[in-house]
Design brief:
The chain is an alpha+beta fold. It has 2 domains: 91 residues, Alpha-Beta Plaits (2-Layer Sandwich), CATH 3.30.70; 132 residues, Crispr-associated protein, domain 2 (Alpha-Beta Plaits). It contains 8 helices and 10 strands. The strands form 3 sheets. A 4-stranded antiparallel sheet has the order 2-3-1-4. A 4-stranded antiparallel sheet has the order 8-9-5-10. Strands 6-7 form a two-stranded antiparallel sheet. Helix 1 packs across helix 3.
């Protein structure tokens, strides 16, 4: 399986002016970037993705796509002029084919949540739940957040053996997300608080096709909003372990 590694520079103030979103959504960077990327490329052509860095008003987004940089540029050329102007550059290259036994260092920013179904008695908290809180709800004792999130990562990083993983960052973030149904606000969006975990580590390729599909799809939830992008890089000496 082959796909493209894509780097896109986005002028955030220009993006906020170019897209039509409720006020709260425009002030959620992940919602704003997801919207401008979708409108610029006529659909979810670059997913998963993540914010790599920000330099003043310009945000650099890294992502994966089945389309080349030239094909993405052709799509952007047909977007509304204001949307096209918010995309300041597009770069990309085909990712090399992985081989069993190769080792890579990886990084990922993910949203470690689960969808919990209601229990017959109606006592269990359900809906989207932090994996750590869901473990507590199940009665697990003596657990640490890092342990639960590492398990969450390992279970989803299919096609690879996780040789080392370190939780390098955790925070609860307030985000804006679509809200549908009879209780939805008139804006169609609502604020939520979600967990965000960042990991660094080392993996060994066990099944190259499965790992490629995993990386291509992303891991965890809220992948459309800048979470779940797994970046692979060459292993370095004295790596985590």
């Amino acid at each position: 399986m082959t796909f493209w590694s894509i780097q896109i520079d986005v002028d955030v103030p220009a993006a906020a002016r170019a897209v039509s979103l409720p006020h709260d959504a425009k002030h959620d960077p992940s919602y704003l970037l997801k919207t401008v990327l979708t409108e610029a490329f006529a659909g979810p052509a670059v997913r998963p993705w993540t914010v790599h860095r920000q330099d003043g008003p310009i945000v650099t987004v890294l992502g994966y796509s089945d389309l080349s940089k030239n094909e993405l540029a052709e799509r952007a050329a047909l977007a509304l002029p204001a949307v096209r102007a918010a995309i300041t550059s597009i770069h990309g290259h085909l990712l090399p084919v992985m081989r069993e036994g190769q080792r890579y260092r990886f990084s990922v920013r993910l949203c470690p949540t689960l969808h919990v179904t209601p229990d017959p008695a109606g006592l269990r908290r359900h809906g989207e739940r932090d994996a750590f809180l869901a473990a507590i709800d199940r009665g697990e004792e003596g657990i640490l957040r890092e342990v639960i999130y590492t398990r969450y990562l390992v279970e989803r990083l299919k096609g690879a053996r996780v040789d080392a993983a370190r939780l390098t960052g955790f925070r609860l973030v307030e985000v804006t997300r679509p809200h549908r149904g009879s209780l939805a606000p008139a804006t169609g969006v609502a604020q939520r608080v979600l967990p965000e975990a960042e990991f660094l580590g080392v993996v060994t390729v066990m099944d190259s096709d499965v790992l490629a599909q995993t990386v291509r799809n992303g891991i965890g939830r809220h992948r459309a909003f800048g979470r779940g992008y797994v970046r692979l890089e060459p292993e370095r000496p004295r790596q985590l372990g």
